[in-house]
Specification:
heterodimer; A: OB fold (Dihydrolipoamide Acetyltransferase, E2P); 5-stranded mixed barrel; B: alpha/beta; Peroxisomal Thiolase, Chain A, domain 1; 9-stranded mixed beta sheet; 12 helices; 18% strand; globular
């Protein structure tokens, strides 16, 4: 699944204790090609710049035993 | 409309660190301050509207406060609309008076957010407004939600971080003229840009304060000296969670203010002074432009030239706003109303704006989600 980065923020002060170990972490709003908007974290990938309008690829990550969360990575124009 | 609703009493407690205070004691101090200001006997209060508390959450805060204060009104309940609560309480009180249901409605809020619990506690409590499935799992804080708005707004309209910083500097300069402000030491754009990053692009000095304090007003039916008329009011609602917002650059403050202007029979250009919710620097900047006081992208450069100060082209938040005067929750929204009343009464001392006849007040709750606007004028 792919989309476009609508906006983002790099969070330096965690919302709750559960996220303290993750700072700084990106939160972004992604406009999916299918036509809806989601919030995810954006995982930095090499030197691909995290900027508004960048294409993103959605991956799914397992968190604990019963939870799977979408996460985003900045994509190149050509990769699937 | 039957009775024209007027504001006969207004009182703000000292704001900041109030180690001796509780949620209810701040309510009490503010309420009786406003009752005295209106020259009323407490037994004449026949309506009481409260807001909510984070330090002493209660299902029936208004009933608890009336019990605490020894009031037995005909009408009593609490209102919750996040940062729009203050203006919404006034709009609701005006409706009760206009309908003839009440003659003197006490609107009161207060919280000891600074000393009532830890800063982490306050931040965690506020983070609960994030959507449990679609936002909180990603660590969305309130500053991060406003950071999403800020980055998009800056991208679309060429707003810079210095423009945001100028809002913080202006609010601090205004707070220096108010003896009750929480923070009054001057700051510079450099101070803002060197303060710790909270959630990009927002730094600590882009964020409102966490304060103890309370505020109250009396909305009455009977004409009185010192009375300020509630000429118009309106609301706008598009979403709660930022993930569901229809736009990150266009918010319901546009509809809310348009409804308030229409009901008052005035235009944005007619307004002499404004008191507009400023939970973050970006909040005030977006609202100034969305409401139409400035063209998109024009507020920042104007603010850098002093537009929002008492002697500026568009005096706004002359008490210093949530960013510097203080932010004890719902009472913070009432401070905007109280400052408008103080200015219209010509009682603002060194920060008095000349010829202040028509005031605009705006509150917004959530992430620019729930909006309420008021137009007040000298009776």
């Amino acid at each position: 699944m792919r989309g476009t980065l609508h906006s983002f923020s790099l969070v330096h002060r965690a919302s709750t204790k559960a996220f303290v170990a993750d700072v700084p972490y990106y939160v972004g709003l992604i406009d999916m090609n299918e036509g809806f908007r989601i919030m995810t974290n954006i995982q930095p990938t090499g030197d691909r710049e995290i900027k508004i309008g960048a294409p993103v690829q959605i991956i799914f990550e397992k968190r604990g035993s019963a939870t799977v969360l979408p996460q985003a990575k900045i994509a190149t124009e050509t990769e699937d | 409309m039957g009775n024209t609703p007027i504001i006969t009493g207004a009182f703000a407690t000292k704001v900041g660190k109030r180690a001796d205070s509780s949620c209810l004691s701040l309510h009490d101090e503010a309420a009786f301050g406003a009752i005295r200001d209106a020259e009323l006997d407490a037994r004449e209060i026949d309506g009481v509207i409260c807001a909510y508390s984070l330090t002493e959450p209660h299902l029936m805060l208004a009933s608890w406060f009336c019990e605490f204060a020894g009031l037995s009104p005909k009408i009593c309940y609490a209102v919750q609309a996040g940062g729009a609560t203050g203006a919404t309480m006034i709009m609701q009180a005006a409706s009760l008076v206009a309908a003839g249901t009440c003659r003197h409605v006490l609107v009161v809020a207060g919280d000891n957010r600074l000393t009532g619990f830890s800063r982490d506690g306050a931040i965690a409590a506020l983070s609960q407004v994030g959507h449990p499935q679609f936002e909180r799992p990603y660590g969305l804080s309130i500053p991060a939600a406003y950071g999403l708005v800020a980055n998009r707004y800056m991208h679309e309209f060429g707003v810079s971080e210095d423009h945001l910083a100028a809002v913080a500097v202006a609010m601090r300069a205004n707070a220096a003229n108010h003896p009750g402000a929480h923070m009054s030491d001057p700051i510079t754009i450099r101070d803002v840009s060197e303060s710790p990053m909270i959630a990009s692009p927002l730094r600590r000095l882009d964020c409102s304060l966490i304060s103890d304090g309370g505020g109250a007003l009396i909305v009455s039916a009977a004409p009185r000296d010192k009375a300020i008329e509630i000429l118009g009011a309106g609301q706008g609602h598009t979403h709660e969670h930022i993930v569901a917002a229809p736009s990150l650059v266009d918010f319901a403050c546009r509809q809310s203010s348009a409804r308030a202007f229409e009901s008052a029979g005035v235009k944005a250009d007619d307004i002499d002074i404004a008191q507009i919710y400023d939970s973050f620097t970006i909040t005030l900047l977006v609202e100034l432009e969305s409401i139409g006081f400035f063209e998109p992208g024009a507020a920042g450069p104007a603010i850098m030239k002093g537009a929002l100060q008492t002697d500026g082209s568009f005096p706004c938040n002359t008490h210093g706003g949530l960013l510097s005067h203080g932010h004890p929750g719902a009472a913070g929204g009432l401070f905007h109303v109280i400052e408008a009343v103080t200015q219209l009464r010509k009682e603002a001392g060194t920060r008095q704006v000349n010829d202040a006849e028509l005031a605009f007040v705006h509150g917004d709750g959530g992430i620019l989600s729930a909006h309420c606007s008021l137009v007040l004028g000298r009776g």
